[in-house]
Amino acid sequence: MPPYAIELNEVKKTYQSASQQVEALRGVTLQIGSGEFVAIMGASGSGKSTLLHLCALLDRPTSGTLKVNGQDLSGLTERQCVEFRRHQVGLIFQQFNLIPNLSVRDNVLLPARLAGTCDQKVVDRAVHLIDRLGLSARQLHKPDALSGGEQQRTAIARALVMRPALLLADEPTGNLDSANARHFWSLLSDMLEESPLTVVVVTHEPAAAAEADRVVVLRDGAVAGQFDVEEAKDAGELAARYQLLTR
Ligand SMILES: Nc1ncnc2c1ncn2[C@@H]1O[C@H](COP(=O)(O)OP(=O)(O)OP(=O)(O)O)[C@@H](O)[C@H]1O
Ligand SMILES: [Mg+2]
User: Fold this and answer.
1) Could you tell me if the CB of 15 is within 6 A of ligand 1?
2) Distance in angstroms (rounded) separating the CA atoms of residues 201 and 186
3) 48 CA to centre of ligand 2 in angstroms
4) Domains plus CATH for the chain?
5) pLDDT at 92 over 80
6) Does ligand 1 have an atom closer than 6 angstroms to the CB of 45?
7) Which of 19, 79, 133, 186 is surrounded by the fewest CB atoms within 10 Å?
8) Separation of alpha carbons 230 and 189, rounded Å
9) Which helix (H) or strand (E) segment is 71 a member of?
10) What pLDDT was estimated at residue 1?
11) Are 1 and 69 in contact (CB under 8 A)?
12) Judging by beta carbons within 10 Å of its beta carbon (0-12, 13-18, 19+), is residue 180 exposed, middle or buried?
């Protein structure tokens, strides 16, 4: 059997601030298959962003092991972590995090420029992504001249331009109205059909989680439960199952 795309084993993360310790993750064991689309749900403070940051190597577990494609990442140097993020991971955040003085096209090309791999093939791919995401007429605009939905679509193109194996998104539609949020999810599933990759999305929205293969629910820094989306017949039933697991 091929290795899991992501494998966490008894992962704990404790934040130490001046006056107190916060146990953000208290022993999470979770496997995510290659090509799987997993939605992480849970109340505010349950550890969702912490989990995602660990998977992106933006932070390290306090204890436990994290493997990506079978490789234990605990031994990587800071430089190797940067390389891993640049080449393996696409990231989308709630606050689009676009660079204000760069155009749409330059924002999309930024990961390739940072990695020193911005050749014609990458430029062609960026143009294709911009076109697929309906941004061709906007590609020379700066982010402040874009709508929220256009900014978020730029962030999708930027996350996919390096052909990552893993797409991680933290409440990507949290700042969008419901019509733009729906548009985001349907574009994302179209993009996944074009080039399959492993996706982990943190979301509060049952309708968004219904796009995934599996829902993992966190409560107080631990996995409260998980279920296959197929088991729920619609977003309403998915929301009900989620509520049961957060009690
Ligand atoms: N850098 C930090 N220093 C100290 N505590 C932190 C830090 N980051 C997160 N925490 C704490 O860890 C816990 C989990 O935080 P996390 O951001 O993972 O929650 P979340 O599930 O993403 O919540 P939300 O839905 O509000 O985004 C919270 O109690 C939070 O206050
Ligand atoms: Mg969060």
Assistant:
1) yes
2) 14
3) 6
4) 37-46+87-246 (3.40.50.300)
5) yes
6) yes
7) 19
8) 16
9) strand 71-72
10) 67
11) no
12) middle
By most ligand atoms within 8 Å of CB, the mutation choice from 50, 59, 204 for ligand 1 is 50
What distance in Å separates the CA atoms of residue 60 and residue 69, rounded to the nearest whole number?
A: 17
Structural element, H or E, at residue 21:
strand 21-32
User: What's residue 36's pLDDT?
Assistant: 94
3-51, pLDDT tens digit by residue? 899 999 999 999 998 889 999 999 999 999 999 999 999 999 999 999 9
Question: Can you read off the two tokens belonging to residue 64?
Answer: 């436990």
Residue whose tokens read 């729920």: 232
Query: At residue 232, what are phi and psi to the nearest 5 degrees?
Result: -100, 130
* Mean pLDDT of all residues in 236-242: 93
How does residue 192 score in pLDDT terms, banded at 50, 70 and 90?
confident
**Other CB atoms closer than 10 Å to residue 138's CB: what's the count?**
20
Neighbours of 49 (CB within 10 A): 19
Q: How far is the CA of 245 from the centre of ligand 1 (A)?
A: 20
